[in-house]
Design goal:
- Two copies of one chain form a homodimer.
- Helix content of chain A is about 20%, strand content about 30%.
- Chain A has two domains: about 100 residues, Alpha-Beta Plaits (2-Layer Sandwich), CATH 3.30.70.580; about 140 residues, 2-Layer Sandwich (Alpha-Beta Plaits), CATH 3.30.70.660.
- In chain A, strands 1, 2, 3, 4, 5, 6, 7, 8, 9 and 10 form a ten-stranded mixed sheet that branches.
- In chain A, strand 8 and strand 9 form a beta hairpin.
- In chain A, about 35% of the residues are buried.
- Chain A contains five helices and ten strands.
Chain lengths: ~250, ~250
């Protein structure tokens, strides 16, 4: 009888080709997890996450689910995983879940965080986790841009995926900006995010902060739905998946 | 006319063979700095620090001094260093100092920090900076041990250096322990520390916390002055030089 497990995963994305397993490389988070759990189980195990993260993106609260037949306890499975996973991947909680729980299909919301270091001085201990910008940033203009982006919109201009037939309408409940020393920490809370969406939102907000575009250009962007009109793809290393919500 | 400079340096020690330059490797902090400044100056430049740090030890506030003839401004020298130093070494301030300032000879005190993660769960984002201990630690016993170590003592038992004719008497003004989530952060403030001294102090305090020795054994240790009676050498990665004091 297979049991369904739900776990919270942390990883530093720096060394990986992102979440999703690939045939061309075994250097993905999903690849590492499936290999390990398949060894434990003695047969192939599939691991689902709340969603893919790009190469270089970090996770503090990624949620995964998988089925196992083995009769180990929750603690034994978690300890086994933490013993054999690479040092930059860790399981911080693991519990048995209802049979119908699925980390991606049941997710109802997510929080991503993007860290910008606005300084000319390096913060070497944070170098893997912040995007550094030396030029001054106009915080008021960025807040205005953030306001235009909140709400339910068609975010087609804010994804790198082309010609998908799936809906590109999403709801951003809130975008916040917190100042912490020389850092600006942006938090994106929404019901879901398209491929590259947070990084393109961030790139667009930063272009407003750098006075390379007007905050007022954003409503038009949302209307035109054209990727080439939106901002640059902000670097992966500044981004982290913080929390996934379920009902 | 040479000018004397004083700078505050940060580095992540993980990838280096410590501060001090060596003939066998160029992978030292001092080696990297001297090579860079010698290129800037067009002739050999010697860089002094407040003291050596071991391989793997980090610095948030190492102080260095060096003489340069070049006519660049303070900001230009600092920017040049940050541009060409490896990503895990950074200069956070640089000013011209009096001719007689010497980073090591003028130092009057130092603060070191040691981070212990007391958990069975990995904190993957801190893995390079904490020493993880899964077993419970007796905080009251450790505080008692810390109290015995404060003050002016002959710390000969707490150094790996043998047969030096130099004095091994030092004053520890204060040892503090702060709890922060699952971390115990130890702060050592003293007038100076011998080779390996903080790591052996920490190893001894941790052995008390693990009930492998009594806090009351410490006065005898200080009296016997015998390295083999003191605790283990706590791992380098938990240690960081935080601040150096000058009059």
């Amino acid at each position: 009888m297979k049991k369904n497990y739900r776990a919270i995963l942390q990883y530093e994305g720096t060394s990986y080709q992102g979440w999703q397993k690939q045939t061309s490389t075994d250097n993905t988070i999903q690849g590492k997890l499936e290999k390990l759990l398949s060894t434990l189980e003695g047969k192939p195990v599939e691991v689902h996450s709340s969603g893919r993260t790009d190469a270089g993106v970090h996770a503090y609260g990624q949620v995964i689910s998988f089925l196992l037949e083995c009769d180990k306890t929750e603690k034994e499975i978690m300890d086994y995983m933490n013993q054999y996973l690479p040092m930059d991947i860790g399981v911080i909680s693991l519990v048995q879940a209802g049979d119908r729980f699925h980390a991606r299909l049941n997710a109802t919301g997510k929080i991503y965080r993007y860290r910008v270091l606005n300084s000319s001085i390096p913060h070497i201990f944070d170098r893997r986790y912040v995007h550094q910008i030396e030029e001054p940033l106009d915080k008021e203009a960025m807040k205005k841009a953030m306001g235009y982006l909140e709400g339910t919109h068609d975010f087609k201009a804010f994804t790198s995926k082309k010609n998908s037939k799936k809906s590109t309408i999403r709801t951003i409940h809130q975008i916040e900006m917190e100042e912490k020393g020389e850092e600006l920490i942006f938090t994106f809370y929404g019901d879901g995010f398209l491929y590259h969406m947070v990084r393109i939102l961030m790139g667009t907000i930063l272009e407003v902060g750098l006075h390379q575009r007007e905050a007022e250009s954003i409503p038009l962007l949302l209307e035109e739905k054209e990727r080439s009109l939106a901002g640059f793809l902000a670097p992966a290393k500044g981004l982290a998946l913080m929390k996934v919500f379920y009902d």
